């Protein structure tokens, strides 16, 4: 058992939730995570987010599609990467989130205990 | 800024509190920490605890003394290592704890946010 929850697991849970909410745009997920945590002084590293997405694809939870950003390919060739659940991905994701929830609760217990024992 | 609080800092705060409470017995601190966290599924590694004590000595916060365990040295030669605050150690320790408290609060904020955002 690690001391605290792993950054990778923490990020994966957020990515799953974003896909659940149909917000599975590759680059936008990165931007959203950074914006949401800025006030808490945490900047999720880009490399961690891309590794987390890669793992979710490897685990058979997500798959990728690409679409052009603009409507006119002559004007805008930029591709957007989109993430979706595989056929049994949403179920697998729920199980994974459940495991991570247990670890989040364990960590909250340890940190709350440390505050009450030492301060 | 690291993702979560470092194990070393977490342990150092507990060791400082134990010395504040006049419970600065080397081996007993290790035993107490292990007992207190057993229910939470965390076993502070012995090596981490000894490195944390070493750092607190290096930082000029604590110093060590030794005493024999039994009253009769002919019967029991086992030495006990005791930790005490240096003359300005308690003040330095308070400052250190204050820094760690800030980080504990930051981590609690992140974990509570993750629970409310994803569950």
UniProtKB/TrEMBL annotation, chains A, B:
GO terms for molecular function: DNA binding. SUPFAM superfamilies: Winged helix' DNA-binding domain. Pfam families: RTP. One of its GO terms (biological process) is DNA replication termination. This is Replication termination protein. It comes from Paenibacillus albidus.
């Amino acid at each position: 058992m690690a001391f605290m929850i792993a950054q990778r697991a923490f990020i994966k849970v957020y990515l799953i939730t974003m896909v659940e909410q149909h917000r599975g745009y590759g680059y936008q997920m990165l931007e959203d995570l950074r914006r949401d945590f800025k006030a808490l002084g945490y900047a999720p590293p880009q490399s961690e987010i891309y590794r987390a997405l890669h793992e979710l694809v490897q685990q058979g939870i997500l798959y990728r599609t690409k679409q052009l950003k603009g409507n006119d390919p002559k004007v805008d060739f930029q591709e957007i990467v989109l993430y979706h659940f595989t056929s049994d991905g949403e179920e697998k994701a729920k199980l994974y989130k459940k495991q991570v929830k247990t670890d989040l609760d364990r960590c909250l217990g340890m940190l709350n205990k440390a505050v009450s024992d030492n301060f």
